[in-house]
Amino acid sequence: MLAGKQVFFMKKIAERLKALRKELGMTQAAFAAHINASRAYISQLEGNPKLAKSPSPKFMEKIVMVESSTNARQLAEQHAAYRSGVSNVDPKPIRLRQIPIYTFVQAGQAVEYEGLPTRWEDTIEYDGNDERAFALRVAGDSMEPKFPAGTIITVSPKYPPHSGQLVVARIKNEGCVFKLFHHSGDGKIVTLSSYNPLYEKIVLPRENLHWLYRVVRSTQNL
Fold first, then answer.
1. Structural domains in the chain plus CATH codes
2. 25-46 in b/e burial notation, b at 16+ Cβ within 10 A?
3. From the CB of residue 221, how many other CB atoms can be counted at a distance below 10 Å?
4. Helices (H), the chain
5. How far apart are CA 55 and CA 47, in angstroms?
6. 34, 122, 99: which is closest to 72 by C-alpha?
7. Which of 126, 144, 195, 213 could form a disulfide with 99 if both were Cys (CB 3.0 to 4.6 A apart)?
């Protein structure tokens, strides 16, 4: 049986893991695939940390890497401080830089990242660590009600998307679409779906896409 300190440690790891996964909006299966871990272990750790095997140093390194890449840990700390009544402001400065906002027409002209325009009319602040990140302004109603027209989405070519995540895809001989991404078990067939039920799913071979980038953030006018 685990000692008291070990049980406390495992519970803390489970809470940290669940908070990170929810911040990313991932299922246990998607998160396990994202860090190349077993879904069964993630499920056991979150559901019954007393019985779970202690995570390896390599496992924890992956968790730390994901936290640092998404600022999820920082957001969790801010939320905890706010709830405790101490502060709702993180004292650590956030490094911001400007990234371009393209139109979907501009992005649709690029068959690879290097083909994106070198000029743009507008920018948005970004605090992530992907030097190739860019933004797009949503048009149309295919992703309503969650992402109405005018929403600005930030796209990160650095982190490959996993099934169940939001993406921007460049379809060969067509253009760019902002959709919810799923793939077949072998990854060869891609399904791109909308939140608006009036739009049909797009099902096509992965080879029919020039590129597929993960959406990491959205900004809406309130």
1. 4-84 (1.10.260.40), 98-219 (2.10.109.10)
2. ebebebbbbbbebeeeebebbb
3. 7
4. 4-24, 28-34, 39-47, 57-70, 72-84, 104-108
5. 15
6. 34
7. 126
